[in-house]
Amino acid sequence: MNSSSASTTTLSFNNSFLKPVILDSLGIGLSIIAICKTTFMILLIFARRQLIKPKERVLFLLSLNMFMNVLIFACFTLNMFTSMLLGHMNPDRADLHDNTLRCRLKIYISTIALISALYSNTLQALHRLFRIVYHHRPFFYRNIYLYMFGIVVEIHLGAILQLPVLLPGHYDYEDYHCQVYLTNWRGILIGASCVWLPPVISTIIIYVFTVSFIRRNLSKLTMRQKKRIKRDFIVIRRILWLVVFIILFGTPACSTPIVYHLFGYVGWWANHVTWLTFISSFTGMTVVHTYFAPHIHVLLVKSFSGRKPATMV
């Protein structure tokens, strides 16, 4: 009887031990994929910069902006999932607990990268809008200093917009890292309002305005402009897919507090699912950007096939 009870207890312990460890390992794997993907693209752009034409510099700057921010965020998630894995495998080790100011600074800095990555989509949408609406004014879409300034603004937004989350103390220590408790509806609401919704709404508004402008003025455009806009639509479709990833990005974090307050229950896996969605969405953003961005496609073809494809930008 005692032997049977001991076996049941051991089996239960093994199941409760293995489940978070498996999800931790999955998070580490996805983070490594994101790091490898973005590092490869960053190094490729720098290594093959002699192939970049002057009129393409803004496009590659915006691509670098996205890849760099996703890389920084992926490094954070790799560190976070590694800490969680070590903690779940060694729950009695006190040195693995990091409920300190450093922990909160890490989440603050990583959230700057997170917000900047989200706004990088908005900057790309804005650049495409300027190419279409103000095609006769190259200053708006070829001036690299204008977009450098935009990136600086993006970083400052990342630092400022999360202050309503940081200063009231909504960042708490949970599961070997710092974050907003998923059951903290006030913190999640503030975070969604300041971090998630602004870039989503801004990008959608720019996308709708761009498409509306094209439909209103299609009959007035020359054949050359129509060919150019047809290429721009490829990028607009990419922007739409990026918006889908952004929406997916925030869905688990926003829905968990609602489920908790309706049913009084949050699964042990909710935290893992939220962060796995974060890193999966960002990885998906970089894949979509690489697939649909014509200038990246041209660079890849030139670098690995030696052919000279017709430029699409």
Automatic annotation (TrEMBL):
Keyword terms, alphabetized: Membrane, Transmembrane, Transmembrane helix
Main location: membrane
G-protein coupled receptors family 1 profile domain residues: 38-297
SUPFAM superfamilies with a match to the protein in the record: Family A G protein-coupled receptor-like
Keyword Lipid metabolism found: no
Annotated transmembrane regions: 26-46, 58-85, 105-123, 144-167, 187-214, 235-263, 275-300
GO cellular component: membrane
Localisation per UniProt entry: Membrane
Name of this protein: G-protein coupled receptors family 1 profile domain-containing protein
Region forming the signal peptide: none
Domain of life of the source: Eukaryota
Species per Swiss-Prot/TrEMBL record: Adineta ricciae (Rotifer)
